[in-house]
């Protein structure tokens, strides 16, 4: 036991202890949670007011984006953080990807210890079983309804009742927001770096080179949602200035190089041809020299680093 306590303490000394305190209404206060979190060693505490069922947690989203390697997110109870077991597992998966940890003071969850990880695995198995049981019950209910000649689904939605449609719309918006926040760290930094100087088409192309499947329309919609939820600056939505065709090609080539600096000039030319991009002179065949000219312009414009030693070779 003493060795386990020592290992846990040494693991936490590597990073910060960051507390997260949430209440549901304005009438409630976070003081009791803050006292408990500070007693547990949290020097920094993030506060939030919002319903436990709400998927919109701006303070939590910001905390998960900024938490560093070795840091530990601490809550008093699991219900202060997560809406469900699946949400809890999503949060911990996000923390794990950042080499950060999670700890609940009143629950046996502490990802810095073997016992805590075991408890987490049990929760994951329970969540998987719960999803399977819900799926089976849903299928059985549909079969029973059809056997009685009834249509499956929500009668209120089928009959276009306003209250049912409003609930369905709210649920769809909440699900959309959850999907956006789950991947925001993959694409938002690029958007912040390039907007509003570059068009949505330019940014979508750069993200595609990094393996992210975004269309300009979906990307703009996602940023609009982030701005509406006060998770991103409204300046990202400003209209971009008109750009010459060569400027767009310059941005595209810079994005290819940034996503994979090991690509040669000829390999970048090949990718441009596969994307059916026309050369600045309108041709369909790209030469390494044309790619190099665009990269030189991108370097002078600050789109890529100015180190000439980092310039791709021809082959």
- The end-to-end span amounts to 59 Å
- Class based on secondary structure composition and strand pairing: alpha/beta
* Secondary-structure element pattern, one letter each: HEHEHEHEEHHHHHHHH
Unreliable segments (pLDDT under 50, ≥5 consecutive)?
1-13
Total number of helical segments? 12
Shape: globular
CATH superfamily label of the largest domain: Resolvase, N-terminal catalytic domain
What would CATH call the class of the largest domain?
A: Alpha Beta
Round the Cα radius of gyration to an integer and report it. 25 Å
The figure for the number of domains is 3
Task: Estimate percent helicity.
Answer: 55-70%
Describe the protein's architecture and organization.
Keywords: DNA integration, DNA invertase, DNA recombination, DNA-binding. The active site is at residue 24. Residues 16-149 form the Resolvase/invertase-type recombinase catalytic domain. The protein is of the alpha/beta class. It has three domains: 2-116, 3-Layer(aba) Sandwich (Rossmann fold); 160-237, no CATH class; 245-310. The chain contains twelve helices and five strands. The protein has helices at residues 2-12, 31-39, 58-66, 85-97, 114-147, 155-158, 162-194, 200-209, 216-228, 245-259, 265-274, 288-301, and strands spanning 17-23, 44-49, 72-75, 101-104, 109-110. Residues 1-13 have low confidence and may be disordered.
Outline the secondary-structure elements:
Blueprint lengths: L1 H11 L4 E7 L7 H9 L4 E6 L8 H9 L5 E4 L9 H13 L3 E4 L4 E2 L3 H34 L7 H4 L3 H33 L5 H10 L6 H13 L16 H15 L5 H10 L13 H14 L14
Parallel strand pairs: 1-2, 1-3, 3-4
Antiparallel strand pairs: 4-5
Helix pairs in contact: 8-9, 8-10, 10-12, 11-12
């Amino acid at each position: 036991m003493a060795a386990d306590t020592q290992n846990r303490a040494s693991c936490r000394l590597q990073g910060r202890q960051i507390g997260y305190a949430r209440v549901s209404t304005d009438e409630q206060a976070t003081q009791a949670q803050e006292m408990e979190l500070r007693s547990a060693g949290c020097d920094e505490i993030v506060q939030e007011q919002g319903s436990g069922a709400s998927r919109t947690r701006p303070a939590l989203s910001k905390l998960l984006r900024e938490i560093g390697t070795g840091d530990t997110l601490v809550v008093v109870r699991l219900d202060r953080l997560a809406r469900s077991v699946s949400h809890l597992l999503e949060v911990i998966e996000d923390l794990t990807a950042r080499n950060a940890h999670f700890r609940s003071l009143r629950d046996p969850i502490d990802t810095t210890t073997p016992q805590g990880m075991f408890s987490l695995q049990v929760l994951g198995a329970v969540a998987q079983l719960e999803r399977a049981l819900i799926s089976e019950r849903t299928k059985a209910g549909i079969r029973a309804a059809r056997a009685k000649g009834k249509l499956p689904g929500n009668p209120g939605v089928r009959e276009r009742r306003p209250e049912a449609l409003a609930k369905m719309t709210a649920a769809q918006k909440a699900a959309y927001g959850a999907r956006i926040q789950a991947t925001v760290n993959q694409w938002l930094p690029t958007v912040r770096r390039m907007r509003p100087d570059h068009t949505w088409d330019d940014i979508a192309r750069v993200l595609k080179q990094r393996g992210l499947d975004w269309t300009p329309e979906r990307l703009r919609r996602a940023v609009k949602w982030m701005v509406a939820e006060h998770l991103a600056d409204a300046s990202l939505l400003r209209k971009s200035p008109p750009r010459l065709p060569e400027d767009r090609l310059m941005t595209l080539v810079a994005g290819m190089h940034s996503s994979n600096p090991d690509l040669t000039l000829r390999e970048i030319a090949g990718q441009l041809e596969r994307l059916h991009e026309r050369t600045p002179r309108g041709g369909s065949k790209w030469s390494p020299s044309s790619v190099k000219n665009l990269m030189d312009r991108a370097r002078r414009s600050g789109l890529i680093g100015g180190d000439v030693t980092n310039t791709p070779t021809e082959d």
